[in-house]
Every structure is written in structure tokens, then in C-alpha cells.
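Task: sequence design from structure.
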């Protein structure tokens, strides 16, 4: 229930931000008499005149949150599990139309469960997981005007994770190792909105949807003699939004601050 409330609040905040931005855009356009966004090479395209917030970020580096990604890993039954890793990275615009993205996601989780039974207590290590994700992209700005930039971002993500399930104390049984590897290639299309309408053009919010091709493999290995293993590989072509409506906020909205 708390998670649903938090996601609902995130949606309300995001919607309010976009409504405020839209109102500011409309007022500014009305005051200046400017037309709406046009494609590069056409009259009024700010990408060619350098009059937009986006154009002023050329040759500047941005640092921020690039979205949440899933890293594949086998579960204890050898099935399809995953670990979530927020990606933190940088974006550098070589010129107003071409940029470079690079990011890193990391997750390390673990814990201990203690069972108190009268005068004795037993500590059991929870199943932990460690995962890394590397992100690279080439953002292309196709049109920009005022505080708005329409972009297409071809991207590549490579992730790997591992975990060890220890045998119960005193059982002398073998440990079980879980691992996973994933790579996806795709492209996202969406907008980057700069907060120049409140005097902070360096701060931007990015929202996008897209299509990706992903290859994932998961492996469960029992450290016995002889070694036993189960491996599962999948190939997926899918959109990057997901099946839940709030995924567009948790996975596909990113924030950036330029220096």
C-alpha cells in the first residue's frame, strides 16, 4: 500500500511539473510571438540559431540519473530473476545535435536473519546479490525550441550479476552459485525539457519510450563433485516502458544537471 501511494505521489508530481512547464511555454510563446517547434533546416528552428536552452548546453557536460535497469540473474530454482540498478552517468553534447552518454549502475545487497529460540540464537546469512551495469548512448537532437528538445537516443546496456547461496550450517552440503548476464541494444525517443522557464536552464527532465533487443542468460551452479549446473537463455524484443503505467516514471524519466 505504501509503495502504491509513493508511486501515485510520483505520478502527481511529474504531471504537475509537466502542466506547469506547458503553461510556462504557452505564456512565453504568446509573449514573444514565436511559432511552435520546427525540424532542423526549416525557418524558425532554434537548433540552427542557438536560441534554445538546449543549444546553450552544447560543449557542456551533464551529470544525473539515467533511469533504472534490470540485471538478469538466476533465482534459487534456476528460473528468471533480476536485480534492479539505478544508472548514474554523464552526457556531453559535442554540438547542439550530437551527444555522448555513459553511465554505470551498481547494486550490492545482503543481510542476516537471526532466530532466537530461548537461550540460543541462530544467524543465517540472507541470499545477497552483486551486480554491475554499463550504459552507453548517442543522443541525437532532431529539433529544439525554447526549453524543449526532441531527441532519439540509440543505446547499449551490458549487465552482469552474481550471488552465492550457502549451504545450511552443519549440513556439509554444497554451496549454490547464481549468475546472470544481459546485453540489450535499442533506441528511445522522447523529450528533454530544460527548466529555463524558472531560471534554471542547466536542469533538465527527460522522458522517453523506445524499443530494444535483449539477450539474457542465467546460470545456477551447484558446487559439488561432479559440478551440476542449469543454464537458461532468452531473447526478447520489447518496448522499454513495461506493463505497469508507473514504469514511465520509475524507468523512463531521467534528470540531468549541466555544468
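Answer:
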Amino acid at each position: 500500500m505504501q509503495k502504491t501511494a509513493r508511486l501515485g505521489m510520483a505520478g502527481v508530481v511529474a504531471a504537475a511539473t509537466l502542466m506547469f512547464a506547458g503553461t510556462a511555454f504557452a505564456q512565453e510563446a504568446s509573449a514573444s510571438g514565436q511559432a511552435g517547434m520546427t525540424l532542423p533546416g526549416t525557418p524558425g528552428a532554434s537548433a540552427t540559431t542557438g536560441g534554445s536552452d538546449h543549444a546553450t548546453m552544447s560543449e557542456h557536460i551533464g551529470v544525473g540519473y539515467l533511469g533504472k535497469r534490470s540485471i538478469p540473474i538466476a533465482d534459487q530454482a534456476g528460473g528468471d530473476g533480476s536485480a534492479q540498478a539505478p544508472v548514474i552517468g554523464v552526457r556531453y553534447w559535442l554540438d547542439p545535435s550530437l551527444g555522448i552518454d555513459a553511465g554505470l549502475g551498481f547494486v550490492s545487497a545482503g543481510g542476516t536473519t537471526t532466530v532466537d529460540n530461548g537461550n540460543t540464537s541462530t544467524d543465517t546469512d540472507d541470499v545477497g546479490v552483486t551486480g554491475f551495469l554499463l550504459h552507453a548512448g548517442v543522443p541525437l537532437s532532431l529539433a529544439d525550441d525554447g526549453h524543449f528538445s526532441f531527441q532519439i537516443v540509440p543505446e547499449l546496456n551490458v549487465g552482469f550479476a552474481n550471488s552465492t547461496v550457502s549451504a545450511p550450517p552443519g549440513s556439509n552440503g554444497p554451496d549454490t552459485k547464481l549468475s546472470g548476464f544481459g546485453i540489450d541494444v535499442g533506441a528511445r525517443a522522447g523529450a528533454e525539457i530544460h527548466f529555463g522557464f524558472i531560471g534554471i536552464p542547466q536542469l533538465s527532465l527527460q522522458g522517453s519510450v523506445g524499443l530494444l533487443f535483449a539477450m539474457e542468460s542465467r546460470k545456477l551452479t551447484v558446487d559439488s563433485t561432479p559440478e551440476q549446473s542449469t543454464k537458461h537463455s532468452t531473447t526478447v524484443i520489447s518496448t522499454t516502458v513495461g506493463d505497469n503505467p508507473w514504469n514511465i516514471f520509475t524507468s523512463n524519466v531521467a534528470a540531468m544537471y549541466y555544468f
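The helical segments are 2-32, 46-49, 53-56, 247-250.
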